Amino acid sequence: MSAASVSPDATAVDVAIVGGGMVGASLALGLAGSGMRILLTEAVPFGASGQPSFDERSTALGNASRRIFEGLGVWHGMAPEAAPIRAIHISDAGGFGCARLSAAEQGIEALGYVAPNRRIGAQLWGLLTRAPGLSLRVPGRVEDIAIDAGGARFIVVSGAGREAVTARLIVAADGAHSEVRTAAGIDAGVEDYQQLAVVANVASDTPHEGIAYERFTRSGPLAVLPLADATLSVIWACHRADAPRVLSLDDAAWLGELQSRFGWRAGRFVRAGRRASYPLRLTRALYPVATRTVLIGNAAQALHPVAGQGFNLGLRDAAMLAEVLTSSAGDPGDAALLARFAAWRARDRSGVTRFTDGLVRLFGDQRPGMGLLRNLGLLLFDLSPPAKSALARVSLGFGGPTPRLARGLPVRHA
User: Fold this and answer.
1) H or E stretch including 29?
2) Cα 137 from Cα 128, distance rounded (Å)
3) Do residues 281 and 191 touch, judged by C-beta distance below 8 A?
4) pLDDT of residue 2
5) Bridging pattern class, strands 98-102 and 87-92
6) Residue 88 forms beta bridges with which residues?
7) CA distance 219 to 171
8) Which DSSP string do the residues of 291-360 spell out, in sequence order?
9) What CA–CA distance (Å, rounded) separates 241 from 50?
């Protein structure tokens, strides 16, 4: 049976969310209890070794993301393992300039937090399993997606067999290689940075004091972030051609090269955890909506991890979509409703994308004189309180309406 010829006894829902990673799961929680029939599918269950959204990596969360998680009822369980970022130090390797941002100077408790992905996943899925109005198909693989003005139709393949589903709206939260995006006929541009991110947790002989570092090297950005257990999370972007060598180093040699590239500001690196890697590309959907379809998170835009903005942007997608859908008593797949969502998210999406892509290109530019200009720019930034305040507010977005959840308000008007 194909989705194009769904049987009369197909499961009918209002909103089908394909992808139960951190963004898709957050949207499902935001819609739970709204009175709509919600279906969430995820091919790899939480806790499985192959679940890419909830692996050993950590995620930097802005204060707006913290408030969204508070509104969803999951932050309290994350907080014990979320390390506050008290300060940020930005530098260009081999240069004289650096910029520093302090939470205390901004009059806030923290500039953000770093939380383990598995902890985030545990809190989200702990609530999803008992959320009202929400049906889960996990593990469930989606096939034969067909979308037209009448709705979306697809097959979910799970342990229970093949289930036909119809939905008035289908949400793509299935990542940068989104099958839903393809089925909806939405093209996406892909720019390959020719870099690979090598991620690992390391221990240092010096307390991190809540300082996050972003160091730009010739091979790519190198981020060192504080973790709640006193260790550090390292995201090391290296040239793709050099990545096999870096990944093949034993722990002692890898720590030595990391130390050489990063320096000593965070102390001596003395122990390394398991390493993982993933390619770095900028993927941008040409449109975030189409007939009966919405893209959120990496399905809409997958960014370079520099500045840690990708997940925060995707979470604001989810928060705003939940707000738009729950504020309307009509058809969740209505074209005007989806156009409103797209318009409200446009400035934030384009602004964050330009910001992160611009950083990668600016600090990767090795033309004569560019290093001097970058370092002068860092010095000027460090001397400008208004510029620092503007950067501290980045977690609220780059323009357009801020989701109610990100402002500490309930997703729905009372």
Assistant:
1) helix 22-31
2) 11
3) yes
4) 45
5) antiparallel
6) 101, 212
7) 36
8) TTEEE-GGGTEE--SGGG-HHHHHHHHHHHHHHHHHT-SS-TT-HHHHHHHHHHHHHHHHHHHHHHHHHH
9) 26
From 127, 134, 124, select the one nearest 36 (Cα to Cα): 134
At 399, the pLDDT band (50, 70, 90 cuts) reads: confident
Tell whether the model's pLDDT for residue 49 goes beyond 80: no
67: which strand partners? none
Closest CA to 174 of 52, 50, 323, 335: 52
What's the average model confidence in pLDDT over 109-123? 94
126 phi-psi bin (left φ>0, alpha ψ -120 to 50, beta other): alpha
Percent of the chain with pLDDT over 70: 96
Q: Measure the CA–CA gap between 233 and 223, rounded to whole angstroms.
A: 8
List of residues 6+ apart from 340 with CB closer than 8 A: 324
Q: What is the pLDDT of residue 51?
A: 56
Q: Residue with structure tokens 């309406």?
A: 401
Average pLDDT over residues 125-139: 93
Q: Report the range of poorest mean pLDDT among 140-154, 235-249, 319-333, 368-382.
A: 368-382
User: What is the Cα Rg of the chain in Å?
Assistant: 22
Rounded Cα distance between 136 and 144, Å, is 19
291-328 tens-digit pLDDT: 999 999 999 999 999 888 999 999 999 999 999 999 98
CA atoms within 13 A on the CB side of 142: 29
CATH 2.40.10.10 for domain 3-82+114-190+281-366+399-407, yes or no, is no
How far apart CA 307 and CA 355 sit, in angstroms, is 9
Separation between Cα atoms, residue 28 and residue 128, nearest integer Å: 8
217-272 confidence digits (pLDDT tens):
888 899 999 999 999 999 999 999 999 999 999 999 999 999 999 999 999 999 99
